[in-house]
Design brief:
single chain; 136 residues; alpha+beta; Double Stranded RNA Binding Domain; 3 helices; 4 strands; rod-shaped
């Protein structure tokens, strides 16, 4: 997985870069289909001294889908961790949907082959075509 990191109103230090790569890179163990991760970290303003002014946002590019998460916190590392947690939840949901879709397709294919075999054993080719076209 390729990880692009961008810093806004903040100097990107090696420790921040390593932390982002560790946290976002750990998402790859949930699904191996992640093509790219685009991460942006930074300060929302330069003049605030208190409050949630550190921001982290990330986009995960998957085949056919882009997952996105954002967080604002008092500490940059906490914001990055929150983004990772949100993306982890979204990746798990995505993976479950893909598994369900694959199973649903397999069930349909099995049903079609079963109908075709029954019609072939009965010698009725028109029956099997009609049932397959109906999706029964």
């Amino acid at each position: 997985m390729k990880i692009n990191i961008k810093a806004t109103n903040l100097k990107l230090t090696p420790s921040i870069e390593d932390f982002v790569e560790e946290k976002i890179g750990s998402l790859e163990k949930f699904t191996h289909g992640i093509l790219e991760a685009i991460v942006e970290v930074g300060k929302t303003t330069n003049h605030h001294k208190s409050g949630p002014f550190f921001r982290a946002e990330a986009d995960l590019v998957l085949p056919g889908k882009v997952l996105r998460a954002e967080a604002e916190e008092k500490d940059l590392y906490i914001a990055i961790t929150r983004v990772k947690d949100e993306l982890q939840t979204e990746v798990k949901k995505y993976k479950e949907k893909m598994i369900a879709r694959r199973k649903r397709g397999a069930r349909t294919a099995k049903r079609i082959f079963k109908i075709a075999e029954e019609a072939q054993s009965a010698g009725d080719k028109d029956l099997s075509r009609r049932q397959i076209n109906k999706g029964i």
